[in-house]
Records
---
Amino acid sequence: MQFIDLKTQYQLHRAEIDGRMARVLEHGQFIMGPEIEELERALASYVGVKHAITVASGTDSLEIALRALGIGPGDEVVTVPFTWISSCEVIGLVGATPVFVDIDPVTYNLDVAQLERAITPRTKAIMPVSLFGQMPDYEAINRIAAGRGITVIEDAAQSFGATQRGRKSCAVTKIASTSFFPAKPLGCYGDGGALFTDDDTLNEKMRAIRTHGGIKRHHHPLLGMNGRLDTLQAAILLAKFPHFPGEVSARERIGARYTELLRGSCGVPEVANENTHVYAQYTIRVGNRDQLGVKLKEEGIPSAVYYPKCLHEQPVFAPLDYKWGDFPASERASREVISLPMHPYLTKAEQDKVVAAVNKHAQPTDQAP
Ligand SMILES: Cc1ncc(COP(=O)(O)O)c(C=O)c1O
């Protein structure tokens, strides 16, 4: 059993993927070839925004967004301490200060009730993460940011394909960023990412920053980076993209079935805010996380922990002067969560095996989340 099965997906769509890659090898435009624009049009249309800008990774895309907003030293950016390092790393890379808000223990997303308290006159952006595949309440977050000169950036690395109140992830904030890392809901065969916005000025700036600070060759009005997506990766994404809506439906179905069969023996993911969930990770909460991981492994079931440490526990963020106890919901989640095999091609038999093993070995947490 695979934790995320990329091989089955490749076997199913091999002819299209190989064909698309072969065309790139033949035309030879490996950097900014025609597939880049074709993919950007397809992504923008799927999400329902004016502009999609492909980039080299989800990390680069977050950094480009912050740079396009002119965020730097002296500015604060609000995010969560229970996420992948990139969400916070990029704030430090542009010289700004990360400010953490704890998560809601049920959805693992930013606790909107605690957001207002974290905002100061130096807050320039709020960068919530749509963790594990569902979105925090962006209507509420946008409302808090509105009129204060604060931009909301959705870190949608894990939620591409999800919706909230009928609107797609990446379409509900001023800027959104996603990742095409192979294991993500829409993944390429290397690193990749994309930015989304309806704003023409930000679109131009982000495009320029992606390509060394300028759109015209040998003209560099901004400080930029080499942040382009490879044409080959765009070709792979174009081949996979027609199958993505079907994969999203499969993810929803498989996630809902896990929840139905596991509820009662462990903490299951709850879908909130009129969301649909793409289950980039199917994450449960138990009282014996490490022991459960060992038991699953003994039965041939892979599992993973996202994330075993909060960001305020990471040595690199020690200068922020947070301490253990500052973010109890995040801290508790980091000690209790474990993610189960999850991908659109997980069979019922495989899922039944996982469910039986979890129901047998999981111990409840000592308190409700
Ligand atoms: C929440 C979150 N933000 C950002 C990223 C960064 O994406 P990438 O790996 O494409 O740089 C990831 C990827 O793991 C992520 O999960």
---
Amino acid sequence: MSANEHFRVDRGTLLARLRSEPLWDLAVIGGGATGLGVAVDAALRGLRVVLLESGDFAQGSSSRATKLLHGGVRYLAQGRLSLVREALRERATVLRNAPQLSRPQAFVVPAYRWWQPPLHLLGLKAYDALAGRRSVGPTRWLGRRAMLASLPTIQPQGLKGGTRYWDAQFDDARLALALARAASRQGALTLNHCRVDSLILEGGRVTGLRCTDLEGGGSCEVLARCVVNAAGPWVDEVRRMADAEATPRLRVSQGSHVVVDRSFWPSDEGLLVPRTRDGRVLFAVPWQGKVILGTTDLPQDEVPREPRPREEEIDFILAEAGRHLARPPTRADLRSVWSGLRPLVLPPRAARKAASGQGGPTARISREHAIWTEPSGLVCVAGGKWSTYRAMASEVLAHCIHEQRIPPGREGRGERSTEDLPLVRDDALLMSALPGADITIAEGLTEQRVRFAVRHEFARTVEDVLARRSRLLFLDARAARAAAPAVASIMRAEGVLQPGLEDFLGLSDTYLP
Ligand SMILES: Cc1cc2nc3c(=O)[nH]c(=O)nc-3n(C[C@H](O)[C@H](O)[C@H](O)COP(=O)(O)OP(=O)(O)OC[C@H]3O[C@@H](n4cnc5c(N)ncnc54)[C@H](O)[C@@H]3O)c2cc1C
């Protein structure tokens, strides 16, 4: 398919191609931000790349972020300037390449103590200065009166003023889908609901993988020059497919969010609480007509596919938000809750310590990413942030090329960079060709939109549509439940959700408050 054609998803054709390709250059395990970034970069170089995702694209951590494209104000406070600078550069890249899915976002850091204003102002001016010409807006001090005028629901008691600074916000799952579509347009095979069950080893070296189509049930072997493990919080699980004794390299930390109505925070500016009682930052961010409050940082021993916010996390977020809002939200006000798992990479020594049960709190583990090759030749990538997915991906490609596992490119396309690759297409024409524009299923979701999700965005399950094409499950879990039967019947009319796929009809109940 030429890069200019619109990609229409035909799962049968994708599966046939999966089975017929004798040798791929790259096989990527995991369809989150990291794996999809790698697939786009590889496909742009003309390499033969296949990406397999056991659930839906972004169903892991990559749909459960705070939705900020940021350099990390917190990392600035830790003096990690290169990390901040790289993320600010990448923030500008996403804003340029996916303007429909990202935008600058103002935040205010309130000051309730006399020493906070100079500290916040200085720090955030430095943050802005690090962005240089990529700054998205100036940092300014707002007096108490200006604060109350633009943030009418902030806790007024003891308020001295606040610092306004700018970062950016995005739609994480939809950006992941844009990456899947961009990779496909460039010739990659990206397949969701296809689980990698094991790795093929020859003489101790990984030469491919075995996978199962979770929809049709068939399994198949895929051979590749290089296999990249981009399984996020499940990277260790995939490593153990090559070496059952592998020392864990990840510590996983759960972060939860809750969603409330805009009446709690009607301002267009977000709120950043710089220090919660456990020493983290807390955000209140307006997003798609609701407000996201979060997050937490809880070390986890288990790595469930559908993590569930714990009661104490929800209580903590509500209590911390309540200290800064004139009207504190309660449990009864929650529209949705969700948890994500941060794949935090330990340096090898710390990994051995953690394996012997001596791990410390996850809030102190570096958020930087790591790329390494296992003795079996399996290339692993983990950690980092959504904001830096593109830079990580290009490092993974450089790593594989440096190890002479893959050529730099094919058909003379080795020099192409994802830095200037537009990721989002104008789908208006494609959309308008589909029926059902006037049939509304839920707020912001029409029959036409569901049909589009199936035909052009890889949606195979009801949750694929309601959680990651539309974001309704994240915004209002009960409204999503109510919409599920109507979505299912449109999907059936589109030829998906065949009998026997009952699992594909349900929505995860972890989002229900
Ligand atoms: C609470 C929270 C808030 C965050 N907020 C932000 C933020 O605001 N901004 C920011 O920049 N970053 C943020 N992050 C970080 C960001 O979300 C992650 O760094 C990023 O999503 C990691 O992507 P990934 O592709 O490595 O992992 P994932 O998105 O988890 O992708 C891994 C994928 O691998 C798949 N997989 C696993 N095993 C297999 C298998 N056997 N076969 C096939 N597929 C498999 C999984 O299903 C999964 O989809 C946040 C993270 C959390 C948890």
